[in-house]
Amino acid sequence: MFDSLSDKLDKAFHVLKGHGQITEVNVAETLKEVRRALVDADVNFKIAKNFTNTVKEKAIGQNVLKSLKPNQLMVKIVKDELTDLMGGDAEGVDLSGSPSVILMSGLQGSGKTTFSGKLANFLKTKKTRKPLLVACDVYRPAAIDQLHVVGEQINVEVFSNKEEKDPVKIAQGAIAHAKQNGHNVVILDTAGRLAIDEQMMNEISDIHKTIQPNETLFVVDAMTGQDAVNTAKAFNDVLDFDGVILTKLDGDTRGGAAISIKSVVNKPIKFIGTGEKMDAVDVFYPSRMADRILG
Ligand code: GDP
């Protein structure tokens, strides 16, 4: 469905034949192709532009190695740069608390409930971890039911209180329950809205300030594409989150949202969601993601 970047660069690079070096003049068309490829992969336009400027600085003056064609060299520079950009320490999730509290944030439909289940399921396999899932969505009873369904699937207890309308109190109740019942990880699944609004941000900010979780994760649908930048920034401004979970990478998106988010908030992408099932989760590998974005 997509032309790979190498194919596009092959076309753009015919001008470089016979030249031994990448120069500002002969690289212009190629950089345009790189930019187009990134925007096609849903990277935010401004970020794609900044990125190609960086690549340009790195590329100019480089000798075209005998072993590599100019387009291959360019793909290598672009890939290394992308990998660097998306890299950084993704040192897992902080499980040092007793219990360790993990707060999930993100828009409705981003995959918070599903990822909460996946994380609980993953931690459960480590014999020393006993997770508790907590339904902090006080607006949608269906969301609470959904978390119970997830909990049953993976055999993890779910804490909820449909009578309580204050998510902070639910979270506090859940932590007390966890302490009494030997749960050493508490995963707070919070309410999300379809778009960012002040009430939602105030609510999650209150939970964050009062509970002071060990780890705050921002869950984002990889198919959000260009919008991912605004959403990530809005959540990061309020929560200063620790890491990003990029979901729905099993879809046909190239996943350029990863670059946009990393450029804007500079937080590590920790895990990716690759399906609806509870085991469809993987650690984030920047170089694999760079390959996917470049095609
Ligand atoms: P929440 O509103 O943020 O809690 O989002 P949900 O966890 O309810 O997910 C919204 C929809 O996306 C559900 O239909 C999930 O099954 C689906 N979903 C979540 N993660 C993934 C994923 O990694 N891949 C796919 N294909 N679907 C996902």
From TrEMBL:
The keyword Transmembrane does not apply. It is found in: Cytoplasm. GO terms for cellular component: signal recognition particle. GO terms for biological process: SRP-dependent cotranslational protein targeting to membrane. Belongs to the GTP-binding SRP family. SRP54 subfamily. Involved in targeting and insertion of nascent membrane proteins into the cytoplasmic membrane. Binds to the hydrophobic signal sequence of the ribosome-nascent chain (RNC) as it emerges from the ribosomes. The SRP-RNC complex is then targeted to the cytoplasmic membrane where it interacts with the SRP receptor FtsY. This is Signal recognition particle protein. It comes from Psychroflexus salarius.
